[in-house]
Amino acid sequence: MNHFRSNPHRARHWLELTVLLVSLTGPLIAQTSASRTNPLARLVTERFLLIVDTSATMEKRGANVEQVVGKLFAEDLKDQLHPGDTIGVWTYTDELHAGQFPLRRWTPQTRTIIAQNIVDFLKSRKYENRSRLAPVLAQLQNVVADSERITVLLISDGGEAPTGTPYDAEIAEAYQINAADQRKQQTPFLTVLRAAKGKFTGFTVNTPPWPIEFPVFPALAKAEPPPAPPTAVPSLPLATTAPPASVPAPAIISPVPPVPVFTSPPPAPPLAVSNPPAVIPAPVIVPNTNAVVPLPAAAASAGRKSFPLSWLLAGSLLLLGVGVVVLIWLLRSPSQPRASLITRSIDRDLK
C-alpha cells in the first residue's frame, strides 16, 4: 500500500516565500538599527579657525607647532569639537594665506585623518619673510561678524599681539611676561579667542607644553513672555441728573523685548583677565574664505519617517512568522493515507 505525504511542491513554495520575506525584512532591520546608533547631527554647528604664523622667526619652533596642533586635534580640541563642526586653517607671514586648506567638517570617525591632514599641510609651508598680523585681523573681523559661534586658535611667537578685541592689553602683557621662556623652549603661544553673534566673548593665552584651556561661551538669558494686554474698563452707569462721565481709554504699552545677558568669561591662567565684551565697529564685509555649508534639510525630516517604517517592519516580521509556522506544519503533518488502484479493485470484488 502506498502512502503519500504533503505535496513537496507546496512545501517548496512556502520555503521560497519565507526566503523572500527574510530578504525584504533584512534591509529594514539594518536601516532601523543604523538610525538608532547614528543620531542626527546638531542642526547648529560651531566654527573653528586655526591661524598659524609661518614667518622666518617661527622656523625653529616649527616641529613643536606641528606636535601641538596634531595632538590638540587628535584629542578633539579637549572635547570642544562635535559632529558637524567645521575646521578652517589659515597661515600668514607678511600677508594672509587663506583658502589653501579645504574646509573640513568634523566627525568622530575622521578625527585622526583631519588631524594628520592639518599637520601635513603645516609641514608643506615654507617659513619665510617677516610676520605681520594686520591683514589677518582685518579678515578675521569679517569672519567673526558673520559667525553665530566661532573659536579662533592663533599660534604665533608672541612678537605681535592682536588688536581690535576687548582683550588687547591683557594678551600683550601675557606675551611680554612669557616670551623669554617660550623662546628658550622653542615653543609657540596658543591664543584662543571666542566670539558669539559677532562679538568677542572670552580669551585665553596658553603656553605649551602646559595644558590648553578654552574660554567658556556665555549663556544667553531666557526670554520672558510678553505681558498680557490690559483688560478693557467697563463703562460707568448713566446718572439721572447729569450726563455720563467719560472714562479715558487706557493707554496700551507695547512690551519691550528682553535683552540677552552674557555671562562674564572666566579668567584664563595665568594672565587671562576677562572684561565685558565691547562693541566692535562693523568692518567692511569681504568674501568669506571659510563659508559653512548648512546641513541638508533631509536630516530634519528623518524623524517623521520612523512611524511608517516601524509599521512596515512589524508587518514583514509578522508575515515571516506565519510563513515559518505554515511551512513547519506542512512538512511535519502527514496527509490521510490513500489506497492504491490494486487495493481498491480487490475491495470492489469482495463486495
Protein traits:
single chain, 351 residues, alpha/beta, Rossmann fold, 2 domains, 7-stranded mixed sheet, 8 helices, disordered N terminus
In short:
With 351 residues, this protein is of the alpha/beta class. It has eight helices and seven strands, in the order αβααβββααβαββαα. Helix content is 36%, strand content 12%.
- The CATH architecture classification of the largest domain is 3-Layer(aba) Sandwich
Quaternary structure: single chain
Structural class: alpha/beta
Q: Enumerate how many helices there are, as a single number.
A: 8
Q: Major sheet, described briefly? A: 7 strands, mixed
Give start-end ranges of low-pLDDT stretches. Answer: 1-6, 29-43, 232-244, 247-306
Q: Briefly, what CATH class of the largest domain?
A: Alpha Beta
C-alpha-based Rg, rounded? 37 Å
Strand content: 5-15%
Q: So what's the overall shape?
A: elongated
CATH topology of the largest domain: Rossmann fold
Q: Describe it for me?
A:
- This protein is an alpha/beta fold.
- It has 2 domains: 8-39 and 304-350; 47-220 and 261-297, Rossmann fold.
- Helix content is 36%, strand content 12%.
- It is built from 8 helices and 7 strands; from the N terminus they run αβααβββααβαββαα.
- Strands 1, 2, 3, 4, 5, 6 and 7 form a 7-stranded mixed β-sheet that branches.
- α2 (62-74) packs antiparallel against α4.
- The longest helix is centred in the N-terminal third of the chain and has 30 residues, at 8-37.
- The radius of gyration is 37 Å and the shape is elongated.
- The model is unreliable at 1-6, 29-43, 232-244 and 247-306 (pLDDT under 50).
